[in-house]
Amino acid sequence: MRKPIIAGNWKMNKTHGEAVSFIDEIKGNIPSSEEEVETVVCAPALFLKEMKDKAAGSDVKIGAQTMHFEESGAFTGEISPAALKDLGITHSIIGHSERREMFNETDESVNQKLHAAFQYGITPIMCCGESLEQRENNQTEQIVRDQVEKGFAGISAEKAPDVVVAYEPIWAIGTGKSSTAEDANETCGTVRKVLAELYDENTAEAVRIQYGGSVKPENIDGYMEKEHIDGALVGGASLKPDAFLQLVEAGRNE
Question: Which candidate in 38, 98, 105, 168 is catalytic?
Answer without folding.
Answer: 168
